[in-house]
Amino acid sequence: MPWKNQGGGPWGSGPKGPWGQGPQSQGPNPPDLEDYIRRGQDKIQQMLPGGHLSTMGIGLVIIAAIAIWLLSGFFRVQPDELGVVLRFGKHVRTVQPGLNYHLPYPVETVLLPKALRVSTLNIGVSIIDDPARRGRATRNVPEESLMLTGDENIVDVDFTVLWRIAPDGVGKYLFNIQNPEGTVKAVAESAMREVIGRSEIQPILTGARNNTENAVHQLMQKVLDSYGSGIQIQQVQLQKVDPPQQVIDSFRDVQAARADLERLQNEAQTYANRVIPDARDRSSQIMQQAQGYKEQAVAEAKGQTSRFLKVYDEYKKAPDVTRQRIYLETMERVLGSSDKVILDQGSNGQGVVPYLPLNELNRKPAPAPTQQNGGVR
User: Fold this and answer.
1) Rg (CA), the chain
2) Which residue spans within the chain are E strands per DSSP?
3) Which residues have C-beta within 8 Å of that of residue 137, sequence separation ≥ 6?
4) How many other CB atoms are found less than 10 A from the CB of residue 163?
5) Has this prediction a pTM greater than 0.85?
6) Closest to 98 measured CA to CA, from 79, 85, 70
7) What is the pLDDT of residues 248-302, one digit of tens each?
8) What are the E-state strand segments in 258-357?
């Protein structure tokens, strides 16, 4: 069959190809670029004097383009930013927040880092969105928080680092490091592991938190300065320092036992501090009494010796008189403090001689009762 009987061509009539029906238009035709260019030229010619591009018109267009180019150099720096002006890619100056100007592109460009903002970086814990609670929740990151202490114990440390761009380090921050936040995080984790590795677990969990924070702060700043990062560490804050979750109950029991031990030791020391001074005071008092008794006994012995020697000297002068005087003084001392009853043993005696009750007469009579407020007292 000849091709002309198949619709006017080898593949039939219409815009067909060897594989059937050709592409069909599915929408409006694409715009005509030449038509747009022609319309734009017509509008420019209408705006120019004389209706055509004269020498004056071309000059006005060039002046307007230059003015627009120069005005494009104005830029605004936000309150938490600093403007870093680059001239052909080289840092030439830093400008403060507000409206500023630089030579238009491509001579000068500007970068606007958040140099006045303090950034917060959490290590050991991540903050994620919680659709169920319509808020944010925290999730532990064990690969960041689990660390080994110097006494070979594992401790779970979550901490926060506050950092910012140093006032004189904006250029270093932009050109010396590629990932600032990742660099700060890696340095913080490394510094914390080094400080924890030099410490024992007990001080870390109790009273050495401030020392740990200061040590990590200083070590981080030293490492970042050696990198030329232009980053300033504001503060390191320990959020949680606990044993691993698997052994935390047992560790708390050990801590409670240590607390009881310290409490009992403190109570024993308090008791010792109270008893020992009392014992020392009583010992000193007894020693003083013994010393006083010793001196008194020695003095009395010396006195009796001296008295005996004097009596002996008198006795040698007149033995009979001295012997009689000693006898009378002894009888006076013996009989002077006792009640005496004199018995008459004569033939006319009645057995007991009447005597006056001198002892009773010498006693003072008891005071008479007095009457006071209508009663006897």
Assistant:
1) 59
2) 16-17, 20-21, 74-77, 83-87, 90-95, 98-101, 108-111, 119-123, 125-130, 135-140, 146-148, 154-165, 231-242, 343-344, 351-352, 371-372, 375-376
3) 127, 128, 129, 130
4) 25
5) no
6) 79
7) 777 777 778 888 888 999 999 999 998 998 899 899 999 999 999 999 999 999 9
8) 343-344, 351-352
